[in-house]
Amino acid sequence: MPESVDDLRFFKVVAASETLTAAARGLGCSLPVVSKRLAAMEQRLGVQLVRRGTRRLVLTSEGAVLAKGIDPILADVQRLEEQVSGGSEALRGSLVVESTLGIGRAHIGPLLGEFGARHPDLDVQLTTTPLPVSPHRREFDVAIRVGPIHDSTLRIRRLAENRRVVCASPEYVRRHGAPRTVDELAEHNCILLRENYGDYALWRFGEGPDEFRVRVGGTLSSNDGDIVTGWALEGRGLIMRSTWHVGPMLKDGRLVQVLADVPTPAADVYALHADTEHVPARVTAVLDFLSERLPERLGRA
């Protein structure tokens, strides 16, 4: 067995990383340090844990067995530490949060900064990604995702309501008018956000069994949500964006909502975490905090 719990935490990061270089970034150390420590673990165990010479990190069968057994052990360690602490409200250890990029920058980052200030003994780590958080990955304590989650082995908790709305600048509406029906979107320059590998030219309307999609088009598209919104603010076309993002601009009049009488599917904000019998106190605390503060923050937006 590895010599310490720290070794298990080390190998958990390695096993969850695509490359040793990525593992080094996640661990906050150099690639030689990671390679040397991994080699020392392999020598001590007498087995190879990771196959060298591949562009992508590949675990051996022994490495996969070790990686699979780490989470229950670390959960037991965490539970023991909490019992020994005598129920102290002080949170300790590390809290790893992963979030999609946009909401991570706009809301989750500031809220975690506030949460970290309340719990100075807790090491809070936030990673943002431009891709949807995979519901099957394990390298986080909590993952934040926008939109419905259809298949996951993780626990899911809704943090806040959210919908996507069609909007434009007042100047665009003055020059081109506002669509009165979704069919009239074909007559407008719709600015497209290329994300999630999906068909980004399909805009979704309706709810539940009445949901339908409308194909739109335009002369501008980007994979960056801020750029797309910036073009709309400049009067260059219509956008469909989440209320968590455009809410402040709708409130102060920089953008106006169109097709407001046509419902859109819910795209609520969710948190995902491991489905274990004992949820660490730090995870429960941050979920409770985000459930309380995120709706307040979005409501003020």
Q: What's the alpha carbon Rg, rounded to whole Å?
A: 23 Å
Mean pLDDT: 86
Architecture of the domain at 164-258 in CATH?
Answer: 3-Layer(aba) Sandwich
Q: What would you give as the CATH superfamily of the domain at 164-258?
A: Periplasmic binding protein-like II
> What is the number of helical segments per DSSP (H or I, 4+ residues)?
9
| Element-level helix/strand string | HHHEEHEHEEEEHEEEEHEHEEH
CATH topology of the domain at 164-258: D-Maltodextrin-Binding Protein, domain 2
Structural class: alpha/beta
Distance between the termini: 51 Å
- Write out the strand line-up for the largest beta sheet, numbering strands in chain order: 4-3-5-14-6
Helices and strands in order:
Blueprint: H1 5-16, H2 20-27, H3 31-45, E1 50-51, E2 58-59, H4 61-84, E3 93-100, H5 101-118, E4 122-129, E5 142-146, E6 155-160, E7 164-168, H6 170-176, E8 192-193, E9 202-205, E10 212-215, E11 221-222, H7 225-233, E12 239-242, H8 243-251, E13 256-258, E14 269-273, H9 281-300
Parallel strand pairs: 3-4, 3-5, 8-11
Antiparallel strand pairs: 1-2, 5-14, 6-14, 7-12, 7-13, 9-10
Helix pairs in contact: 1-2, 1-4, 2-3, 5-9
